[in-house]
C-alpha cells in the first residue's frame, strides 16, 4: 500500500532576484525510488536540497504527510560533491554515529563494516582527503548509510565513478530499497535511471516538465523536452 | 592525550604560585635601584629581620602613587616637597630621613660649554644654556627631573629651544639618549657610575651642596589601608636607622667611589 | 655589530652555565605566557568558532571590536588591570597586584582577541566546507563548534601560538601589573627593559636571544607533539 510522503504546493526558490526553481507543484509517495532528471542547471540539486530542508523556499509550501513522520525524522543526504572532513576515512564515516552518542570504539567498528558494504577498499586510517574521486563518493555514501536512514537523498551519486563502482553502488541502492528505504535521487545517466527509478521527475529550466512512472516515462515521454533528452539531443 | 597533558601542566604551573608569609613591598626610585645598594641591603635585611623586601622600581611620582593606593607597604624616595604633600594627604604615618647621595652633571668629554670651570651648579647650567649645548632632561616629573627644574629656576633660566630635549623617560633611557646625542645631562651619581653605555660622555661637574639628594622612608598609613603591613614596615625602619645599616650604607662603594651618606637620626 | 656578537656570546654563556637567575625568569616567563595562552585559547577559540558560524545583528560589530582590541597597546591594558586590582580599585581585596596571576590576567586580555580573530578566520573557511554536512546531520550548536574546533585544530594551534608569541614578547602590561620585582615577578622582557635602562646592552641582547630561542623552542615542541599525536596531514 503506497501512501503520500510529501506535497509541494507552488514551491518557488528565488536567488539574487532570479527564479531558479519553480513554481513546482507535485506529490511524492512514501516508497520506492524517485529519480530527478533533466539537463545541467535544470534545478535537480536545488530541488533535492529543498526537499531535505537545506534550501530556503521563497514562496509556496512543502508539506509532509503525517503518516511520513518516520521518514522525515530519519533522512540522510549524499551531496553531488562529497564533503570531506579533515579526519581519517574511518572517523569520517563514524562521525554521524558519534553525534548520536555512540562510543568511539563501536562507531569505528560499525564504520569499518559500512565501508565494506559500499565496497570502499582502502586503508581506513588514512586521511579522507587522500581518497580518489570515486572513493570519496563511496565514503560519503557510507557516511549517509551508517545511520540507516529511512529516506535517502542522493545527488548524482555516481557522477565520478567508473562502470564497476557505479554497478556496486546501484546494487547497494537496490538492496536498501528492497529493505524499505525511500530513495530520492538525481542522475544524468539515463541507463541508471532506467535501472533504478520507480518514478521520474523531469525538470527543465527550473520547472517540472513531467512526472511519471518509470515505465511510462521511458516508453512514451509526454513532453518534447523529455523526448529530446532521452534521444540524446541537446535540450534548449 | 598530549594536548590534555600539556593543558594540565600549564594550568597547574599558573596556579602553583604560592604566597610567602614575610613578604613586604616597597616602592623605590630607579636611581636607588640602579645604585646597586639594594642588592647589598636586601639580603642583610632578610638575614637580620626575616623580612623579604620586594622592590617596585618606578619613578618618584609612581612610587608615591603606589603608596597612596595601598599597593605597597612603604616608600623610599627623594623629593621632599612631594613627600610632605603626600603625608599631608594622610597617605603615610611619618617621614624618616635615611641617607643622601648627590647629583652630578655629565657631558661631552671635550666639554664645549666649559661646565667644568663653573663654581656653582647654577653657573654650570647657565654655561650650557648660553652655549645652547644639547641638554637631555628626564622630563618625566621624577624626583631627579624636579630637582633639575629647581636648579634651572635658581639659575633664573627657563630652558627651551632645540638644544633642550625632554625625553619623558627614566634615568637609563635619558642616559642612553644623552650618550647617543653626546649631550649634557644631570644624573644621580649611582646611575652614572653603573651606566655601561657611556660613549663619549664623562663627569663634568660635581660637589655643590645644592646637588645633595635626601632619601626618606615613609610607611604607608594602616588607618587608610588596613591591609598594609605596618608592623613589617616599622621593623624595616628600625633596621634602616640601625648601626648595621649605617655601616653598610657608608661602606658601599661603586668603582671605588662612596655613593651614599647615612644621616638618619636615632631616637 | 659588536654589541650583537657580545650579546650572543653572553647569551650562550648564561644558557650553558644554567645561570640561576636566568632559569628563574625564563621559567616565570613561560609560566605566565603559557598560562595566558591556555586561558586565552579556552576563551578565544570557541569565541572565534562561535562568531564564524552564527549570524546575528551585532556580529560585524563584535568582529570589528575584536580587531580593534587586537591593536590595543599593552600599556593601556596594563593600566586597566592595575586600576582594577589596585588595593584602591574594585578588585583590590583579592591582593593580586604585583603577582604572576595579575600578569596572566593582563596577558589574557591582550592575547584573547588575537586568538579569537585568527581562530575566526580559520573556522570560517572550515565552516564553509562543512556547512551543508553539519546542517544535514542536524547537529546541535555545541556539536558544530566542537567538530569545527577539533577538525580545525592545526589551524587553531597556530592561533594559540600567535597568542603565546605576543604574550611572551610583551613588556608594557606586565611591567605595570607585575612590577618587575626581583625573584617574584621579573620575566625576560621586563629584565631586558631593566638592563637596557642600565645601558647593559649586551646583557639585554643576551636575554633577547634567550627569549627568541624560547619562543622557537615552544613552537617546535608543540608542532612535534601534534605531529606525533596523529600521522595525519591535518
Ligand atoms: N545560490 C544560488 N544563487 C543563484 N543561483 C543559483 C544558486 N544555486 C543554484 N543556482 C542556479 O540555479 C540553477 C539550478 O541549479 P542546480 O539545482 O544546481 O541544477 P542541476 O543540479 O539540475 O544541474 C542553475 O542555473 C544554478 O546556476
Ligand atoms: Mg546538480
Automatic annotation (TrEMBL), chain A:
<dbReference type="GO" id="GO:0005886">
    <property type="term" value="C:plasma membrane"/>
</dbReference>
<dbReference type="InterPro" id="IPR015854">
    <property type="entry name" value="ABC_transpr_LolD-like"/>
</dbReference>
<feature type="domain" description="ABC transporter">
    <location>
        <begin position="6"/>
        <end position="230"/>
    </location>
</feature>
<dbReference type="GO" id="GO:0016887">
    <property type="term" value="F:ATP hydrolysis activity"/>
</dbReference>
<dbReference type="GO" id="GO:0005524">
    <property type="term" value="F:ATP binding"/>
</dbReference>
<keyword id="KW-0067">ATP-binding</keyword>
<dbReference type="InterPro" id="IPR027417">
    <property type="entry name" value="P-loop_NTPase"/>
</dbReference>
<dbReference type="InterPro" id="IPR017871">
    <property type="entry name" value="ABC_transporter-like_CS"/>
</dbReference>
<keyword id="KW-0547">Nucleotide-binding</keyword>
<dbReference type="GO" id="GO:0022857">
    <property type="term" value="F:transmembrane transporter activity"/>
</dbReference>
<dbReference type="InterPro" id="IPR003439">
    <property type="entry name" value="ABC_transporter-like_ATP-bd"/>
</dbReference>
<protein>
    <submittedName>
        <fullName>ATP-binding cassette domain-containing protein</fullName>
    </submittedName>
</protein>
<dbReference type="Pfam" id="PF00005">
    <property type="entry name" value="ABC_tran"/>
</dbReference>
<dbReference type="InterPro" id="IPR003593">
    <property type="entry name" value="AAA+_ATPase"/>
</dbReference>
Automatic annotation (TrEMBL), chain B:
<keyword id="KW-0732">Signal</keyword>
<dbReference type="Pfam" id="PF12849">
    <property type="entry name" value="PBP_like_2"/>
</dbReference>
<protein>
    <submittedName>
        <fullName>Sulfate ABC transporter substrate-binding protein</fullName>
    </submittedName>
</protein>
<feature type="signal peptide">
    <location>
        <begin position="1"/>
        <end position="21"/>
    </location>
</feature>
<dbReference type="InterPro" id="IPR052738">
    <property type="entry name" value="ABC-Tungstate_binding"/>
</dbReference>
<feature type="domain" description="PBP">
    <location>
        <begin position="18"/>
        <end position="244"/>
    </location>
</feature>
<dbReference type="InterPro" id="IPR024370">
    <property type="entry name" value="PBP_domain"/>
</dbReference>
Automatic annotation (TrEMBL), chain C:
<dbReference type="GO" id="GO:0055085">
    <property type="term" value="P:transmembrane transport"/>
</dbReference>
<feature type="transmembrane region" description="Helical">
    <location>
        <begin position="32"/>
        <end position="53"/>
    </location>
</feature>
<keyword id="KW-0812">Transmembrane</keyword>
<feature type="domain" description="ABC transmembrane type-1">
    <location>
        <begin position="26"/>
        <end position="222"/>
    </location>
</feature>
<dbReference type="InterPro" id="IPR035906">
    <property type="entry name" value="MetI-like_sf"/>
</dbReference>
<keyword id="KW-1133">Transmembrane helix</keyword>
<dbReference type="InterPro" id="IPR000515">
    <property type="entry name" value="MetI-like"/>
</dbReference>
<dbReference type="InterPro" id="IPR049783">
    <property type="entry name" value="ABC_perm_TupB-like"/>
</dbReference>
<feature type="transmembrane region" description="Helical">
    <location>
        <begin position="204"/>
        <end position="225"/>
    </location>
</feature>
<feature type="transmembrane region" description="Helical">
    <location>
        <begin position="91"/>
        <end position="116"/>
    </location>
</feature>
<protein>
    <submittedName>
        <fullName>ABC transporter permease</fullName>
    </submittedName>
</protein>
<feature type="transmembrane region" description="Helical">
    <location>
        <begin position="65"/>
        <end position="85"/>
    </location>
</feature>
<keyword id="KW-0472">Membrane</keyword>
<dbReference type="GO" id="GO:0005886">
    <property type="term" value="C:plasma membrane"/>
</dbReference>
Amino acid at each position: 500500500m503506497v501512501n503520500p510522503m510529501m506535497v509541494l504546493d507552488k514551491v518557488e526558490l528565488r536567488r539574487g532576484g532570479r527564479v531558479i526553481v519553480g513554481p513546482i507543484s507535485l506529490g511524492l509517495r512514501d516508497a520506492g525510488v524517485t529519480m530527478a532528471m533533466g539537463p545541467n542547471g535544470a534545478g535537480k540539486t536545488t530541488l533535492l536540497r529543498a526537499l531535505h530542508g537545506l534550501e530556503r523556499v521563497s514562496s509556496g509550501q512543502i508539506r509532509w504527510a503525517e503518516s511520513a513522520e518516520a521518514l522525515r525524522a530519519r533522512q540522510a543526504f549524499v551531496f553531488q560533491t562529497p564533503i570531506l572532513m579533515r579526519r581519517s576515512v574511518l572517523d569520517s564515516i563514524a562521525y554521524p554515529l558519534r553525534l548520536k552518542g555512540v562510543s568511539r570504539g563501536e562507531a569505528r567498528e560499525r564504520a569499518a563494516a559500512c565501508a565494506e558494504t559500499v565496497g570502499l577498499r582502502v586503508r581506513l586510517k588514512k586521511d579522507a582527503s587522500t581518497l580518489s574521486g570515486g572513493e570519496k563518493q563511496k565514503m560519503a555514501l557510507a557516511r549517509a548509510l551508517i545511520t540507516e536512514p529511512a529516506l535517502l537523498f542522493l545527488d548524482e551519486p555516481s557522477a565520478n565513478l567508473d562502470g564497476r563502482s557505479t554497478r556496486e553502488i546501484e546494487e547497494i541502492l537496490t538492496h536498501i530499497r528492497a529493505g524499505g528505504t525511500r530513495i530520492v535521487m538525481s542522475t544524468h545517466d539515463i541507463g541508471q535511471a532506467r535501472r533504478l527509478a520507480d518514478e521520474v521527475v523531469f525538470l527543465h529550466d527550473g520547472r517540472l516538465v513531467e512526472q511519471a512512472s518509470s515505465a511510462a516515462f521511458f516508453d512514451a515521454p509526454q513532453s518534447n523536452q523529455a523526448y529530446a533528452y532521452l534521444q540524446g539531443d541537446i535540450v534548449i | 592525550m598530549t594536548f590534555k597533558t600539556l593543558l594540565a601542566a600549564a594550568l597547574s604551573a599558573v596556579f602553583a604560585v604560592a604566597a610567602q608569609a614575610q613578604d613586604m613591598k616597597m616602592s623605590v626610585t630607579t636611581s636607588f635601584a640602579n645604585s646597586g645598594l639594594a642588592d647589598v641591603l636586601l639580603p642583610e635585611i632578610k638575614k637580620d629581620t626575616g623580612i623579604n623586601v620586594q622592590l617596585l622600581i618606578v619613578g618618584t611620582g609612581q612610587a608615591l602613587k603606589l603608596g597612596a593606593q595601598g599597593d605597597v607597604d612603604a616608600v623610599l624616595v627623594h623629593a621632599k616637597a612631594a613627600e610632605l604633600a603626600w603625608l599631608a594627604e594622610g597617605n603615610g604615618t611619618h617621614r624618616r630621613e635615611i641617607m643622601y647621595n648627590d647629583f652630578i652633571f655629565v657631558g661631552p668629554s671635550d666639554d664645549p660649554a666649559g661646565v667644568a670651570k663653573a663654581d656653582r651648579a647654577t653657573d654650570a647650567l647657565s654655561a650650557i644654556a648660553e652655549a645652547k649645548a644639547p641638554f637631555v632632561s628626564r622630563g618625566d616629573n621624577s624626583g631627579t627631573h624636579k630637582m633639575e627644574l629647581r636648579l634651572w629656576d635658581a639659575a633664573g633660566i627657563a630652558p627651551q629651544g632645540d638644544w633642550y630635549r625632554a625625553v619623558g623617560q627614566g634615568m637609563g633611557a635619558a642616559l642612553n639618549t644623552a650618550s647617543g646625542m653626546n649631550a649634557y645631562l644631570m644624573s644621580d651619581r649611582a646611575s652614572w657610575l653603573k651606566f655601561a653605555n657611556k660613549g663619549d660622555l664623562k663627569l663634568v661637574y660635581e660637589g655643590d651642596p645644592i646637588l645633595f639628594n635626601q632619601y626618606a622612608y615613609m610607611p604607608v598609613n594602616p588607618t587608610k589601608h588596613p591591609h598594609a603591613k605596618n608592623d613589617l614596615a616599622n621593623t624595616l625602619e628600625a633596621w634602616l636607622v640601625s648601626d648595621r645599616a649605617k655601616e653598610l650604607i657608608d661602606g658601599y662603594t661603586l668603582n671605588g667611589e662612596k655613593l651614599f651618606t647615612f644621616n638618619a637620626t636615632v631616637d | 655589530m659588536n654589541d650583537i656578537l657580545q650579546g650572543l656570546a653572553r647569551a650562550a654563556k648564561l644558557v650553558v652555565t644554567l645561570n640561576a637567575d636566568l632559569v628563574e625568569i625564563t621559567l616565570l616567563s613561560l609560566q605566565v605566557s603559557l598560562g595566558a595562552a591556555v586561558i586565552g585559547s579556552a576563551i578565544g577559540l570557541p569565541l572565534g568558532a562561535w562568531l564564524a558560524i552564527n549570524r546575528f545583528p551585532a556580529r560585524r560589530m563584535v568582529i570589528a571590536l575584536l580587531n580593534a582590541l587586537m591593536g590595543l597597546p599593552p600599556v593601556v591594558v596594563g593600566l586597566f588591570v592595575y586600576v582594577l586590582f589596585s588595593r584602591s580599585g574594585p578588585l583590590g581585596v583579592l591582593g593580586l597586584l604585583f603577582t604572576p596571576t595579575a600578569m596572566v590576567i593582563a596577558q589574557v586580555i591582550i592575547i584573547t582577541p588575537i586568538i579569537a580573530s585568527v581562530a575566526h578566520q580559520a573556522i570560517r573557511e572550515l565552516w564553509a566546507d562543512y556547512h551543508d554536512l553539519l546542517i544535514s546531520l542536524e547537529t546541535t550548536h555545541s556539536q558544530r563548534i566542537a567538530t569545527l574546533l577539533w577538525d580545525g585544530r592545526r589551524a587553531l594551534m597556530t592561533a594559540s601560538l600567535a597568542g603565546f608569541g605576543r604574550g611572551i614578547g610583551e613588556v608594557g602590561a606586565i611591567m605595570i601589573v607585575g612590577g618587575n620585582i626581583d625573584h617574584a615577578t621579573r620575566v625576560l622582557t621586563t629584565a631586558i627593559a631593566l638592563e637596557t635602562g642600565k645601558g647593559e646592552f649586551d646583557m639585554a641582547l643576551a636575554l633577547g636571544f634567550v627569549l627568541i630561542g624560547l619562543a622557537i623552542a615552544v613552537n617546535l615542541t608543540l608542532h612535534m607533539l601534534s605531529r606525533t599525536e596523529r600521522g595525519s596531514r591535518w
